[in-house]
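Catalogue entry: protein

Sequence with per-residue tokens
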Amino acid sequence: MKKRYLLLEDGKIYTGEAFGGDQECIGELVFNTGMSGYQQSITDQSYNNEILMFTYPLIGNYGINRDNLESTKPTCKGVVVSEVARRTANWRMTMSLPEYLAQQNIPGISGIDTRAITKHIREHGAMKAAILNEIKSDSLETLNKTKLDPEVIKESATNNAYTAPSVGNRVVVIDFGLKYSILRELSKRNCDVVVLPPTTTLQDVKEVDPDGVMLTNGPGDPMNISDSTLKMIREVEQEYPIFGICMGHQLFALANGATTTKMKFGHRGFNHPVRNLETGRIDFTSQNHGYTVNRDSVASTRLEVSMEEINDHTVEGLKYPGKPAFSVQFHPDAAPGPHDADYLFDDFMKLMNENKTKHSRKVIE
């Protein structure tokens, strides 16, 4: 097997075997603790600019299928595994994981101790890394000088509006790098979905005449979002029910005066326990984020913290008292992951039903 190298910005080098695409890459190295769902994770746009490392020892054993894609074009920079499956078997699969990564020109590296690297990141924090085909004298210098693109939402989100028509509540989905699983959950509830780009204005939303608005997940630092987007959220929440997920949750917080901060190593996995502070209910949730809402900053806003992560008490949910507007940091769409929290989509449906717009509907061409 061809050798390949994982170089960390602190100078650590790990030697493994190459699979997938042939190109080299630089990105932020993050780890995912899920035991399955590698296909959904690799195609999740929230991993844009990141090298995705799996802690579970064997990855790729059920191949790739067309039904579990979360986007048509993955944007993670690379994939790191302890062992890539040599044999794959699943009746739905269309190709193996190495074949898929080669098709998408995403480099992979296997045969290294991913759990040791995870412990290193947990101790020292998330850091840049490079997947290289050879180590050169200036490789570390090049890695440390490389700046990651802060405008990743522009690459991950749609530039054009599109629809998924149905007969139920009309929902505007503002795309910051959405997962298809969000659209699937809305479709299950017969929602008439109109997806709009992140440059959407209040007027754009009004022209669609929705019953509610959803703010999706997406990659990068929420502080890089434009002031016009935050203004749009403030305006929309005054007129329509609103539901934010992951990046959408962070933008909902920023729009209302709270702040966000980068976490030491983030939450990426499918077993994070979250407590509802109003009911005491505990759900296991699917999460993928490297930033969090500063809890202390919420006190100076009109928002209230509605949910928290049990282990580290980070903010997992916000609500706007007196308004049909709320958000969660985790993924109730759970693809992959537990479905404990999918009731939140039903809560969103109830808010829309209670706040139906009174004027006549416009026809979406």
Summary: The first strand starts at residue 3 and ends at 8. DSSP finds eleven helices and 19 strands in the chain. The mean pLDDT is 96. Residues 3-148 form a domain with the Glucose Oxidase; domain 1 fold (CATH 3.50.30.20).
